[in-house]
Backbone:
């Protein structure tokens, strides 16, 4: 499962619509290991999060989806 798939589940589990929110977060892949403080799967990482009334997921929350 990709990071985008897991973020979609995270949003839906928190009563948010993925299609309405997909412009409010940015998944980035620089072709190398992501920064250690970022939520990540493989080389994809969550670079920004601006979803209204919902905190960004933690690595643990993403891992558990």
Residues:
């Amino acid at each position: 499962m990709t990071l985008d798939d897991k973020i979609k589940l995270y949003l839906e589990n928190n009563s948010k619509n993925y299609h309405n929110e997909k412009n409010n977060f940015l998944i980035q892949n620089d072709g190398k290991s992501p920064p250690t403080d970022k939520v990540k799967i493989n080389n994809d990482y969550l670079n920004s999060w601006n979803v209204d009334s919902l905190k960004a997921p933690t690595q643990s929350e993403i891992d558990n989806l």
